[in-house]
Amino acid sequence: MSLDLATTRRIAKLARIGLEDAELETVRQKLDGILGWVDQLSEVDVEGVPPMVGTETEALRQRDDVVTDGNCRDAILSCAPEKSGPFYTVPKVVE
Amino acid sequence: MSYVIEGKTGSWEIVVGLEVHAQIVSKSKLFSGASTTFGAEPNSQVSLVDAAFPGMLPVINKECVAQAVRTGLGLNARIYLESRFDRKNYFYADLPQGYQISQFAHPIVGEGTIDIELSNGEIRKIGITRLHMEQDAGKLIHDQDPTKSMVDLNRSGVALMEIVSEPDIREPEEAGAYLRKLRQILRYLGTCDGNMEEGSMRADVNVSVRKAGEPFRTRCEIKNVNSIRFVMQAIEVEAARQVEIWESGGEVDQETRLFDPARGETRTMRSKEDAHDYRYFPDPDLLPLVIEQAWVDELKAALPELPDAKRARFQSEYGIPFYDAGVLVAEQSVADFYETVAKGRDGKLAVSWVTGDLFAALNRTGKTIETSPVSADALGKMLDLIADGTINGKIAKEVFEDMVETGEGPEAIVEKKGLRQVTDTGVIDAAIESVMTKHADKVAEYRSGKDKLFGFFVGQVMKETKGKANPALVNGALKSKLDA
């Protein structure tokens, strides 16, 4: 398979990565290489083999419904690039 | 089918499906141990998982799973013993992970049905496609700063059930009935409080229009409508908008729209080009969710009686009409109140007091059934006083009003005010004598054939006894004296 420029642009847009037109071809080649490498997996015949969901054999671990966490606003906000009072702030987003 | 839009080119019918996001009642979040309490200080109920710090791993809340299963059972739906979680990828400032953990390919609950009742009494079945669990996002506040939006992550990671209906709805009224019924079932089950004002139940509305007999045309999704009235309005205006587009030779775009109640219109929210490319893939942090049939059976056995079953039982057990039973079961608390009053008593009398005098008193005093000044036990005791002849129905009204005002028990009020019904035939006879003497002219008229005056005499005797005479005794004695 081969990745085209339009798809590369679309992937960048979905990932919110700004790409200059000049960079596009380089990124396309790199991504194409990665996809090609991963795509070797398709050579394996998995007809009739159920998808593997993990290396563990047990099912999902479940916890009880008790409040054990939270109340750490200062710690969380200390990592924020921008904040105001008790809030994170971001550039205004209104639809 | 009664709802059609008359366009220039003929009649159009509407096709509606609803996706309801219902917040699951639980103490802690779906994948973290932070609290879910509404109205807490901003960002105080956020764990490192909810804020998506690197390396944090989600661990599922067993009670949230139980709530989803209970809801599935309450919707007569298929429960899948194995379900999975996927990542739904999109970027938005209220979503720290950059993806929402949801169940896309393998939901926990499959097909079910809800019976809805329309205002003309007709019952319709609306299909449920599926129910799945997912995380809620945080909240953005836009009005605090001219250039910034504030982010509160308290809601981030709270468990939601997304309940998807089949496109079976054909009228705005049906959409309203569906939402009311769904909310009623959720509230009975205790799996969602159904509070639309606080956002614990929100609806996305899918609307399309078509000519009778056509396949489905392109639909639009109206996001996050937060009241039943707005859902019905949004359907009307969106359907009218689409008819206009089709009839003017245009093409409806599949897109996400917002309903603006102030302007009574829908408008586009996200452009079509990058809508809905969520690149779902299985969440590598979460193994498949496997539950046991025995556990599902256990949850099923412990389910409360649901509204439809309760309504049918009230009808047969207490001999009350289908309509009245529906009024009583609309809220579980009213149904419980009624049942306490009616148990071992006259069910019809009980329903007329609960939905008549009690509802009127609650309305007047601005109280609810939970804060009722008259308890179910007290009202029941008052019915006992009617049944054993201590008071008659007319005096009961007076006693009841006193109960509303003072909160005292009916016996105490009857004693205090001396309202005990007069069953002493001597007293009643004396009152009749007195009335007949005072109104000798009317007695003569009655005896010469004016039967209608009988009611007048009854009224006078009741007045003479201050309303406390036993009406049946008065009727009998009066008849024999007048006809003598």
Question: Which properties best describe this structure?
Answer:
heterodimer; A: 95 residues; alpha+beta; two-stranded antiparallel sheet; 3 helices; flat; B: 484 residues; Arc Repressor Mutant, subunit A; 3 domains; nine-stranded mixed β-sheet; 15 helices; 19% strand
SSE inventory with pairings:
The complex is a heterodimer of chains A (95) and B (484).
Chain A: H1 5-14, H2 21-39, E1 62-63, H3 73-77, E2 83-84, E3 87-91
Antiparallel strand pairs in A: 2-3
Chain B: E1 5-7, E2 10-23, E3 60-61, H1 62-74, E4 82-83, E5 86-89, E6 99-102, E7 112-117, E8 123-135, E9 139-141, E10 148-152, E11 159-165, H2 172-189, E12 201-210, E13 220-225, H3 228-247, E14 256-260, E15 265-270, E16 281-282, E17 289-290, H4 293-301, H5 307-318, H6 322-329, H7 332-342, H8 347-365, H9 376-387, H10 393-406, H11 410-417, H12 425-438, H13 440-447, H14 454-464, H15 471-482
Parallel strand pairs in B: 13-14
Antiparallel strand pairs in B: 1-2, 2-11, 2-12, 4-17, 5-6, 5-16, 7-8, 8-11, 9-10, 12-13, 14-15
Helix pairs in contact in B: 2-3, 5-6, 7-8, 7-9, 9-10, 12-14, 12-15, 14-15
Largest interface: A-B, 38 and 57 residues
What is the arithmetic mean of pLDDT of chain B? Answer: 93
Spatial sequence of strands, sheet with the most strands of chain A = 2-3
Quaternary status of these chains?
A: heterodimer
Give the % helix of chain A. Answer: 25-40%
Average pLDDT confidence of chain A is 90
| Low-confidence segments of chain B | none
Number of helices of chain B: 15
Distance between the termini of chain A: 38 Å
Number of helices of chain A: 3
Q: What is this structure, in a nutshell?
A:
Chain A: Heterotrimer of A, B and C subunits. Chain A: It comes from Acetobacter malorum. The complex is a heterodimer of chains A (95) and B (484). By secondary structure, chain A is α+β, with helices and mostly antiparallel strands.
Question: If you had to describe this structure to a student in words, what would you say it looks like?
Answer:
The complex is a heterodimer of chains A (95) and B (484). A two-stranded antiparallel ribbon of chain A has the order 2-3. Chain A has a domain at 5-43. Chain A is built from three helices and three strands; from the N terminus they run H-H-E-H-E-E. With 95 residues, chain A is of the alpha+beta class. With 484 residues, chain B is an alpha+beta fold. Chain B has three domains: 5-297, no CATH class; 305-417, no CATH class; 425-482, Arc Repressor Mutant, subunit A, CATH 1.10.10.410. In chain B, 39% of the residues lie in helices and 19% in strands. Chain B contains 15 helices and 17 strands. Chain B has helices spanning 62-74, 172-189, 228-247, 293-301, 307-318, 322-329, 332-342, 347-365, 376-387, 393-406, 410-417, 425-438, 440-447, 454-464, 471-482, and strands spanning 5-7, 10-23, 60-61, 82-83, 86-89, 99-102, 112-117, 123-135, 139-141, 148-152, 159-165, 201-210, 220-225, 256-260, 265-270, 281-282, 289-290. In chain B, strands 1, 2, 7, 8, 11, 12, 13, 14 and 15 form a nine-stranded mixed beta sheet that branches. A three-stranded antiparallel beta sheet of chain B has the order 6-5-16, with no helix packed on it. In chain B, strand 9 and strand 10 (148-152) form a beta hairpin. The chains are: A alpha+beta (95), B alpha+beta (484). At the A-B interface, strand 1, helix 3 and strand 3 of A face strand 3, helix 1, strand 10 and strand 17 of B. Strand 1 (62-63) of chain A pairs parallel with strand 3 (60-61) of chain B, so a sheet runs across the interface.
